[in-house]
Amino acid sequence: MTGFVKAGRADDVPLLEGRTVRLGARRVAIFRTPDGFHALAAACPHRAGPLADGILADSCVTCPLHGWRFDLRTGAGMGEHPGVEAFEVVQRDDELWLRVPEDLRDAA
Amino acid sequence: MGGILVIGGGIAGQSVCERVRERDPDVPLTLLCKEPELPYDRVALSHLLAGETTREELRLRPAEWYADRAVDVRFASAEKLQLDDGRCVFADGSAARFDRAVLCTGSDPLVPPLDGIDLPGVVAFRDPADCAEIARRAACARSAVVIGGGLLGLEAARGIAGLGCPTTVVHLVDRLMERQLDAGAAELLLAAMPELGIDVRLETATAALVGGDRVTGLRFADGTELDADLVVVSIGIRPQVELARSAGLAIGRGIVVDDRMVTSHPRALAVGECAEHREVVYGLVAPIYEQAAVAAETLTHGDAAYAGSVQSAKLKVVGVDLVSVGEAVGAREVVSADAARGTYRKLVVDGEGRAAGAVLLGDTRGHELLLEQVRRRDEVDDALALLVRASEASAADLPDTAQVCNCNGVCKGEITKAIRDGGLASTQEVVTVTRAGAGCGSCKPLVKDLLMLERDGAAEEPAYLCPCRKQTREQLAAVVREHELDSVGAVGDACGAGRDCGACKPGLAYLVSQVRENRHREERHARFINDRVHANIQNDGTFSVVPRIRGGVTNPQELRRIADVAERHGVRMVKITGGQRIDLLGLRKEQLPAVWEELDMPSGHAYAKAVRTVKTCVGTDFCRFGLGDAIDLGIELERRMEGLYTPHKVKSAVSGCPRNCAESYVKDIGLVAVEGGWEVYVGGAAGGTVRKGDLLAKVDDSESAMQLALAFLQHYREQAEYLERTYAYVERVSIETVRDAVLDPARQAELLERYAIAKAAADPDPWLERHQPVHPKQFAELDTEPEPLTPIDEALAGMS
User: Is there a contact between B738 and B699 (Cβ–Cβ < 8 Å)?
Assistant: First the structure.
C-alpha cells in the first residue's frame, strides 16, 4: 500500500454515517455507503461545518449547519456553491487506508 | 451628493423608493424618516389595535431591503427646503443636496379646537404610539368614546370594543361613513354595530371634553353628557404642508401637483395624502400607489400621467364586510338588498350611462370586477345584470389590470405572471413573491383562486414530506401502516422516499416512530446529528447540553453539580435559557457521555423536535396572587409529556393566574389558572412568529387540564406536518377542528390511549446511551475516544 496510510477500522464507521480522522495537518471525513467508503475534507467550505455529522443519501452528504450538499465520490458542490477536496480511501480486510495527497507526502 | 431625496417614511415615501429603484438601480436615493423607525404600514394600524398583528409585522420592508438596494435611510426631520439650491436643512442643522425632492409628508389627524382636548385620555388614532396608548387605556377604561364615524373611527371603535371596553361612536352627521356609503348601506352598517359591542350616536355634536386631571366624559351641544375615560378623536385628516409652504410651493388643501406629480417648483414632486391633484386630496392607500408610480416615471425621465383615482375603501377590521367604490349616489342606482341577511349591493351609473360607483355590504363578491368597471368608466347597459354577474364573477373574469391586493397595490396580471414565471405552487409562495395578501390578507382567497386558475384547476401543491418523490405525509403513513414497516430504510425500499436528497429522512424517522407508536427500529443515519448524539450542534461543531429541570424548579445540590461539571469540563458558557433551563455550551462530542454521567440528570431534549420545556410560575406555593398550583401541575405535565417526539418542538407553560408570568398564552400548550378552574391554550408562539394561543377550553380542575393538554399533544403528533409548529397547524386547520378532535369525549379517550401507548414505549432518557452506545464510535471520531465515565464525586476527588 505505497502512498497510503492507515486511517482506522472499517467497523468504526456506521453505515450511512461519517467519522473523521487526522491526515497530516488536515482532518478527513470518511463515509460509509452501501457501495463502499468515500472520503472528503472534514470541514464544509462554507462555515467549516462538520461534514462527517451530515445526513447521507444518494451518494451525497448534507452539511448539518446550513445544508450545503456535496457528492461523496468527487467532492463536487451540489448546487451553486463550491465543492470540497475528495480523497481516495480503500478497505483492506478490516482496515481503512487513505491515499496521501502529493502536498502531504513529505509530511506524512 | 445630488440624486433623489424622498421626504417622509410612510407608505407614499416607501412606494416612491420602490418604484424608482425598479426603474433605476443606480440613482442616489435617500429616504428621510421623521419617526425613528423604518416605514410601516399605517393602513393596517387597526389590525395592530385589534391585536391581530405586531409592530414588526407592520414594517413594510426589513432593514436589509434598504441596504441591498442602496437606499440611504436617514432618521431626521427636514426643517427647510431650499429648492432653487437643491438643499435640504435638517432639524439638527446639517444639510443634504438633491437634484429632485419628493414630498411625502402625509397628513396629521384633524383635531377639533374643543375645550378639554388636551386632557390626558384624549388620543388621536394615527400611529403605533397612539395604538399602544389606546390599548393601554382601553384595558382599564370603564367606557370609551370615538369621535368620528368614518372609516378610521369605526376601525378604532372595533379595536377598542374588541379589547372588552364598552364603546360609543359619536358622529356629527346622520349616517356612518357618509363619504363612502349611501343611506341604505349606512343603515345596515348601523344595525351591525351593536353586535360588535359598539353603540352609535348620530347627529351628535361634541361641545367639550370634561374632566379634571384626565378626561371623564363629553358634553354635547344639546347639553347632555356621556361618561368616558378614553376618548379617541378620528374626524379626518389634514394634509401636512408646512414644509412645502415654507419652501414657497403652491398650496390649496394640499400641495398642488400636476399630472406628472410635479409641484409648482420643477425640482419638487409630491405624492400621497399631502398632495392635491385636480383639486382632490386622496386619503386612501390605492391612489398613493398610482401616484408613486407616476412620480417614479417622472423622476427617471419617463413619461406617465396621473388622471386621478377611483376612491375605493374596504372596512378592514373583521366583523363587517364592506367595500365602497367611487360614488355612492348617482343618476341611476340599482340596489339588491336583503335586510334579513344583512346584505346590500348597489351599483351607481352616472348621467352618461357609465359605471360610477358601487357599495357592497355583507356580501362583497365581485368587488374587484366592479372596481375595474368604475375605474375604466365602462358603459353599463343593464346595471342589474352587471350586479348579478359581479356576484358570480370568478377570478377568471377579472381583467389583468384589476387590482387584487389593495394594501400592496398588486394587480391580477402581476400575480398570474409571477405564478407562471416562478412555477409557484402554493398560496403562501405567491404571497411571499408578489406581496399580494401580505397586508390585511382579505384578498388571500382570490389569490388562491388565481393560483388554482393558473394551475388549470389542479389543487394547490400539497406539503410533501418527501419532495423528491412527491409523497405526502398521509401517503407515506399509509405505506407504513399497510406494509407494517418499522424503519426509514424499509420505507425507502417500499417507495423510494428518502433515497434522493435525504432531506426528508428525519421527517420519515419521526413518521415511522409515530405511526408505530415508538415500537419502530431506530436508524441513526436517518436522524439529524443532534438526535445521533442527543445534544445541540453549534456553529463551530461543538455541542450544547441542557439537562431536564422540570418546571424550571431546581435545588442547591443540582446547581452545585452543574457548576462542578461546567468547571471540570471547561464549559465555555453557562446560560439561563428562555425555557427556564441551564445550557452548558461549547462541549466536544467526546465529552458528552462524561458530562451526562457527572450531571446525573436526564436529557432535557433541547436538541430535538420533541417536548421541550414546561415553564411555570411559583403559583400558590409562594405568590400572593396565585389561583392554581402551577408548580406541581407544570412538573407533572412535563413528566407525562417528556420523551415524546413531535413534528416540531413543543414548548409549554403553566401559569398560576391570568397575570400569566410563565407566558402560557404564547406557548404551544399553555395552562392558566383562573377562578374556578384552568384554561388550556394551544397554538401560541413567541419566537420569529408571535401569536397568542387559542383558548381550547376552560376546565374545572388540574387533572382535566392535564388530560386536555395530553390529548392535544397526541392530536398534534398525529396530524401536523413535519416541522409544522402548533401555531401554524392550528391556524391551518382552525381551532374549531382541533376542538372537535380533542373535546369530544370518545375521541379524546382514543387520543389519550394512543398517547399512553406511545409514552410507555418512548425512551425516557437518551442520555443513558452513555452506558450502552448504539455504536462504539457514537460519541467519537476514528482517532478519538469518548472521555471515561466517572461519577462526579470521584471526578472531583481525582482533580484535587
Answer: no
- Long-range own/partner contacts, residues B191-197 (CB < 8 A, 24 or more apart): B191/B342, B192/B319, B192/B320, B192/B342, B193/B169, B195/B319, B196/B157, B196/B158, B196/B161, B196/B319, B196/B320, B197/B161, B197/B162, B197/B166, B197/B167
Q: Which of B589, B590, B545, B535 is nearest to B565 (CA)?
A: B545
Min distance B514 CA to chain A CA atoms (Å): 21
Residue A29 belongs to some domain of the structure:
yes
Torsion of CA B165, B166, B172, B178, to 10 degrees: 80
Q: Do B525 and A12 touch (CB under 8 A)?
A: no
Asked if residue A107 is part of any domain, the answer here is: no
A105 within a domain of the structure (yes/no): no
Query: Taking CB atoms and an 8 Å cutoff, what residues of chain A touch B496?
Result: none
pLDDT bracket for residue B441 (50, 70, 90): low
Confidence of residue B147 (pLDDT cuts 50, 70, 90): very high
Number of domains into which chain A is organized? 1
Residue at grid coordinates 447540553: B545
Q: pTM for the whole thing?
A: 0.57
Residue B439, pLDDT score: 60
User: In terms of pLDDT, which residue wins out, B396 or B220?
Assistant: B220
Q: B residues 203-222 near A, CB within 8 Å?
A: none
Instruction: Give φ, ψ of A97 to 5 degrees.
Output: -125, 135
Averaged pLDDT, B479-503: 90
Residue B204 dihedral angles phi and psi, to the nearest 5°: -125, 120
A15–B782 C-beta distance less than 8 A = no
CA dist., res. B288 & res. B104, Å (int) = 10
Helix then strand count (H, E) for chain B reads 27, 41
Q: Distance (Å, rounded) from C-alpha B710 to C-alpha B758?
A: 12
Which of B623, B622, B605, B601 is CA-nearest to residue B614?
B605
Cβ(B367)–Cβ(B245) below 8 Å:
no
User: Which residues are within 8 A (CB) of B291 and not within 5 positions of it... i.e. 6 or more apart?
Assistant: B12, B261, B271, B272, B275, B277, B282, B306, B309
Q: pLDDT per residue over B297-321, tens digit each?
A: 999 988 889 988 887 777 665 467 7
A52 to chain B: which residues are within 8 Å by CB?
A: 781
Which residues on adjacent β-strands are paired with residue B380? none
User: How large is the C-alpha radius of gyration of chain A?
Assistant: 13
Residue B781 Cα, gap to closest chain A Cα (Å): 5
Query: Across all residues in chain B, what is the average pLDDT?
Result: 90
pLDDT at B319: 64
User: Would an 8 Å CB–CB cutoff place B782 in contact with chain A?
Assistant: yes
Domain that holds residue A9: 4-100
* Rounded CA separation B697/B680 (Å): 6
User: d(Cα B569, Cα B594) in Å, to the nearest integer?
Assistant: 9
Q: Which of A19, A56, A58 sits opposite B781 (nearest CB)?
A: A19
- Answer yes or no: is A108 within a domain: no
What CATH number corresponds to the domain at position A25? 2.102.10.10
Reduced to 3 states (helix: H, G, I; strand: E, B; else coil), residue B45 is helix
CB of B496 less than 8 A from some CB of A: no
Residue of B nearest to A57 (CA): B502
> Looking at CA atoms only, how far is residue A102 from chain B in angstroms?
23
Q: Tell me whether B532 touches chain A (CB under 8 Å).
A: yes
Give per-residue pLDDT as tens, A26-73.
999 999 999 899 999 999 998 899 999 999 998 999 999 888 899 999
Q: Give the C-alpha distances (Å, rounded to integers) separating A45 from A22, A89, B216.
A: 18, 21, 67
Distance between start and end Cα atoms, chain A = 14
**ipTM score for this prediction:** 0.95
How many beta-carbon pairs below 8 A join chains A and B? 79
- Closest residue in A to B783 (Cα–Cα): A21
10 Å Cβ neighbour count for B660?
16
Q: Is the pLDDT of residue B81 over 90?
A: yes
Chain B residues with beta carbon closer than 8 angstroms to that of A41: none
